[in-house]
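Work Package 4 report. The design task specified in the project plan requires that, given a folded chain encoded as structure tokens, an amino acid be chosen for each position. We show below one input record used in the internal validation round.
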């Protein structure tokens, strides 16, 4: 059911130099959302662009709503950036069909930057419910400082032995980065996927990245029905 809610901001966290997360209190309300869905977020501004979709980064197993966004120069982003604890945000939803396939045996999540928000939701949900899904997150960022929810991935992995999180950094120059470098590519996918023909692939990020990775998976003969995409238009 699509709800119209006004939720209190209870915590704001600077996740990376240009990404902030907003924890919203549900109060007495319950929202029945699926892992991967989004809200239409409406801000109190005089603009045609006062409503934008933002993925729900929290899991239905958590008692709050988490949204997370990258800063920008639009009125919407300026307003969001100015919000303080105690302010209210209007949300409409939940919406969307980019949701976790709970009966999958293996899932590969391919993501870049802020595109990881729905995957935090899906991974936390699958872990809290002990779903027997082999999950791998291939997460690409420009620099190590851009990794969103950086402090959480390791503890998620410790809690769920079926989860592997692999970071790859595309611009590691000057950083003492010992992990993987470069964009998500065929080699990285093949090395980490047990069954290319049957794994379900979720891709989320800027449209260019989603298109590029979709074409890559198609060239690797991944069945079309096993590729699920969400494009963050505007990036
Ligand atoms: C389902 C969904 C979930 C999303 N979840 C998140 C999230 O969790 N976090 C997050 O930060 N962002 C998310 N986004 C993207 C978000 O809604 C904004 O589009 C984005 O943050 C850019 O907004 P802006 O105000 O900074 O830029 P804007 O100033 O609105 O846009 C920047 C540029 O993109 C163009 N543009 C804007 N919207 C579109 C569009 N729909 N199609 C084509 N071009 C467009 C503009 O013309 C402009 O040139 C999501 C998008 C979708 C569709």
């Amino acid at each position: 059911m699509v709800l119209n809610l006004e939720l209190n901001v209870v915590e704001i966290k600077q996740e990376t130099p240009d990404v902030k997360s907003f924890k919203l209190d549900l109060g007495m309300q319950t929202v029945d959302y699926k892992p991967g869905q989004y809200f239409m977020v409406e801000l109190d501004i005089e603009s045609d662009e006062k409503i934008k979709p933002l993925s729900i980064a929290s899991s239905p197993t958590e008692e709050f709503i988490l949204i997370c966004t990258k800063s920008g120069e639009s009125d919407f982003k300026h307003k969001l950036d100015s919000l303080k604890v105690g302010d209210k945000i209007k949300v409409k939803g939940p919406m969307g069909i980019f949701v976790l396939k709970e009966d999958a045996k293996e899932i590969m999540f391919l993501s870049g930057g802020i595109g990881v928000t729905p995957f935090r939701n899906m991974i936390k949900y699958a872990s809290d419910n002990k779903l027997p899904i082999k999950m791998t997150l291939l997460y690409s960022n420009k620099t190590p400082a851009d990794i969103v929810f950086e402090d959480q991935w390791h503890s998620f992995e410790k809690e769920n032995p079926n989860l592997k999180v692999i970071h790859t950094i595309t611009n590691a120059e000057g950083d003492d980065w010992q992990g993987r470098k470069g964009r998500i590519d065929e080699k990285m996918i093949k090395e980490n996927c047990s069954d290319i023909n049957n794994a379900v692939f979720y891709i989320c990020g800027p449209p260019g990245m989603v298109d590029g990775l979709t074409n890559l998976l198609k060239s690797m003969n991944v069945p079309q029905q096993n590729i699920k995409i969400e494009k963050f238009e505007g990036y």
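The two ends are 29 Å apart (CA to CA). Validation will be extended to a larger panel in the next phase.
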